[in-house]
Write a structure and sequence with these properties.
Number of strands: 8
CATH topology: TIM Barrel
Shape: globular
Strand order of the largest sheet: 7-6-5-4-3-2-1-8
Order of helices and strands: HHEHEHHEHEHEHEHEHEH
GO molecular function, one term: pyridoxal phosphate binding
CATH architecture: Alpha-Beta Barrel
Strand content: 15-25%
Cofactor: pyridoxal 5'-phosphate
Distance between the termini: 26 Å
Structural class: alpha/beta
Helix content: 40-55%
Largest sheet: 8 strands, parallel
Number of domains: 1
Radius of gyration: 18 Å
Family: Belongs to the pyridoxal phosphate-binding protein YggS/PROSC family.
CATH class: Alpha Beta
Keywords: Pyridoxal phosphate
InterPro entries: Ala_racemase_N, PLP-binding_barrel, PyrdxlP_homeostasis
Number of helices: 11
CATH superfamily: Alanine racemase
Length: 260
Amino acid sequence: MIRKVMAEIDVKYGIRQTLQKIEETYTKRASISNAPKPLLVAVSKTKPVDLILDAYSVGQRDFGENYVQELVEKANDAKILEHCQDIRWHFIGHLQTNKINKILNLPNLHMIQTVHSVKLAEGLNKAWEKLKAENAEKQQKLNVLVQINTSGEDEKNGVQPEEAVGLYRYVLEKCPNLNCEGVMTIGAFGHDYTAGPNPDFSTLMRCHQEICSTFERDPAELRVSMGMSDDFVQAIEAGSTVVRVGSSIFGARAKKPTDA
């Protein structure tokens, strides 16, 4: 059954089509913004390793995973380690503090996109400091994004928009082992664009601007991670510089139980 499903999914085509849409939308946006071309993070959660290999074979390097145990298994997979030596893993799910060490010890971890609290930032900072002392390959700062709950939904993680500057300040001033590259949101699903712009995108861009103004950062240097398969074009139009695309590349996902 898995082979049959994989045969019906053309991941290489999905990558090329997604990159083409990113390029087209970015080109249109470039006339009014100096923000960099958006980075494509291919969201491979619940998908088999062979599909990741397909995406990697056409130049995709950044991959996103939502579940701790699944990322642990994939990052340590023999095929991945042999054939995808330049892969960059982005963790884009909810990270509990008791799972920090499982994530940080992984090969080719590039970024934690979901720093949603002072407690998590503090835990990551301390754990990374310890790893740096023990591992010569972990001497760079850990890349992170501040996650903001732009939709106000209880089931979504992230600080409230009015707390975004405060969490960014904490990471900047109190977490010397973390490199806060920007902001991210998941936002509400299914926005009707015939009714106007996505308010979650507008809110995240406002938080981005407040952080840049407060800390005198160049807006083009502070990443904005928003937009998924259904709305990454609109997200880029709104200012996104990181899009997280899964089903448009890998096909629809099977349901997965909550990560243990």
